[in-house]
Amino acid sequence: MLKVFAVYRFITASLFVMLFYLRFGPSLLGSYSPSLYQFTSLAYLGISLFAAPVAIRARWGYPTLAQLFIFTDIIFITLLMHASGGVGSGIGILLAISIAAGGLLIGGRCAILFAALASLAVLAEEFYAIETHAFEVTTLTYAGMLGVSFFSIAFLSVILAQRAEQSAMLAQQHEQTIVRLEGLNRYIIQHLQSGIMIVDEQQMTQLSNQSALRLLELSEQPAKLADAAPELRQAFELWRANPDQDFAIVSLANRNELQVRFSALNMEGETLHMLIVEDIALYNQRLQQSKLASLGRLTASIAHEIRNPLSAISHAGQLLSEAPELHAQEIRLTEIIQTHCQRVNSIIEDILKLSRRSVSQRHKIALEQWLAEYLDELTLNLGPQAGCFELAIKARGLNAYMDGSHLKQILDNLCSNALQYGRPELGKIVLEVSRVHAAPCIKLIDNGKAINADDRRHLFEPFFTTSHQGTGLGLYISRELAELNQAELSYAGDGKPCFTLMLANADHAVIEI
C-alpha cells in the first residue's frame, strides 16, 4: 500500500510540473505566484522522486515513511494551492487523498492528526490571504467545508482500515488453520499403520507414505507402481479389468504377503487410484480378535456346563472316601476320582483363560528394563528356583509394541515349561534379548531335550502335551496372545531348545485405525 502511495505522489508531482510548463489552454496553476509555484512543484517532484525508491526498498520504518509522506503532502499542496489562487483553485481537495491514505496506512489517532493539520493549513492559508489582501475573492466557507470533509474522510478511512485489518487477520488465521490441517493430514497419512499409495492412470506414483515404503521394503518413493513391486502392478491391472474385485492378497518376491485394497478417487480433471496396503499380520490380528471373541464365549459356556457335574462327582467321591469299612482298593479308586477331578478342573481353568482374555492394549515397552523387573518378580515367586534364570542383553535400547500383561502371560508359560522340561540342574535358563531384522526378539533357551520333528508339528495345537500332568493349552494360548499383538512365537531346537518371540518394533511410529 505504501509503495502505491509513493507512486501516486510521484505521478501527481509530475503532473503539477508538466501542466505548468506545457500550458494547455487557460490554467489557474501558478496564477498568483508563478515563482512560488515553480519552486514548490519542482521541490515536490524531487522529494517524490527520491522517496519512491526508498518506499519500494523499505529502507526506513513503515510508519515513519507514511508520516513523512503525508506531512510533506500537506506542506507542498498547501503552498501550491496558495500559489494558484487559494482554496478556489481546487488543489486543496488533493489533501483528502493524502488524509485517506494516512488513515489506511497508519490509522487511529494519526489519521485524525493529519486531518487536523490539513484543516489548519487550509484555514491558515485563507486567513493569510485575507490579511494580505492577496486575492480579490476569499472563500472562507469553502475552506471550512474542506476541513469538515478532511475529518469525515479521516474517520471513514480509519473504519475501513480497521475492517481491512480484521479481514486480513481473519484471512491469516484461516491460512494458518489450513496450513495446520494440511500438516496434520500429511502426518496422519505418513504415520498410518496401513500403507497408502496414490497412482494415476499411467501408474505413476503420486504419493507413498512411510508404512507403504516399509511394507514394500523401499527406501524412497518409486516413480512407477511396477518399480514398487511387479506383483502389485499385476494385481492393480487385474482390478482395473474387474473393478468389483477390489481386494487382493499379494505375495512378494521376498516372501512377504500383503493385503491390498483398491479404490478410485475422482478428482477434478483427473482420476487417481488409491491402494491401501496392509501387512497380512495385521489382517490376521483382526481375524484373531474375532476368532478369540467367539471362542471365548463358547469355552465359557462349555466350561460352565462341565464344572457343575464335575463338582458333583468330586463331592460324591469325597463323601465316598469318608465312608467307614472301605477296602484299600476302594480307597485307591476314590483317590483316582479326586486326582482326575482336579486335573479336569485345571483344564477348565486354562480354557476359561480364553474367555477372560481382554482386548490387546498395546503400548511401548522398554524391553531391557521390563525384563529386568520381570525377572525380579519371578525371583520372588520362585524362591529356591530363583537362580535358574539369567538375562542376556545382546542389543540395547530395544522397544517393543505390545500389551504388557499379554507379554507377561506368554513368558510365564514359557518359563514354567522351561523349569519343568528344561533340566535347570544342567545350567542356567537364558532369557536373551536381541535384534532380528530390525525387530525386537526375546529368546528363551534351556538345557532340556530337543523336541522331535513329529511333536514340533503339533507343538502349538490346543490340548497337545507330552506330559501326563499338563493340559496342552499353555503354548496354544501363548501363540494366540502373540498373534493378537502382531508378534510371532516359534520354536527352534537345532541345538538347545529355544523358543523365539518376535515382537513389533515400537520405534516404527504408526497410527492404528
What does this structure look like?
The protein has 513 residues and is α+β, with helices and mostly antiparallel strands. It folds into 4 domains: 175 residues, no CATH class; 86 residues, 2-Layer Sandwich (Beta-Lactamase), CATH 3.30.450; 73 residues, Helix Hairpins, CATH 1.10.287; 140 residues, 2-Layer Sandwich (Heat Shock Protein 90), CATH 3.30.565. Helices cover 58% and strands 14% of the residues. The strands form 3 sheets. A 5-stranded antiparallel sheet has the order 2-1-5-4-3. A hairpin with a 5-residue loop joins strand 3 and strand 4. The longest helix has 51 residues. 27% of the residues are buried.
Percent of residues in helices comes to: 55-70%
- Count up the domains: 4
Structural class: alpha+beta
Distance between the termini: 50 Å
Number of helices: 15
Low-pLDDT residue spans = none
**How are the strands of the biggest sheet laid out side by side?**
2-1-5-4-3
Sheet with the most strands, sense and barrel status: 5 strands, antiparallel
Overall pLDDT confidence: 80
Compose a concise summary of this entry.
The chain is of the alpha+beta class.
What brief labels describe this structure?
single chain; 513 residues; alpha+beta; Beta-Lactamase; Helix Hairpins; 4 domains; five-stranded antiparallel beta sheet; five-stranded mixed beta sheet; 15 helices; 12 strands; elongated
Outline the secondary-structure elements.
Layout: H1 2-22, H2 34-57, H3 62-83, H4 94-105, H5 109-132, H6 140-190, E1 195-199, E2 205-208, H7 210-215, H8 225-228, H9 230-241, E3 247-251, E4 257-267, E5 270-279, H10 280-321, H11 328-356, E6 363-366, H12 367-382, E7 389-393, E8 399-402, H13 404-421, E9 429-436, E10 439-445, H14 453-456, H15 474-484, E11 488-492, E12 498-502
Parallel strand pairs: 7-9
Antiparallel strand pairs: 1-2, 1-5, 3-4, 4-5, 6-8, 9-10, 10-12, 11-12
Helix pairs in contact: 1-2, 2-3, 3-4, 3-5, 4-5, 4-6, 5-6, 10-11, 13-15
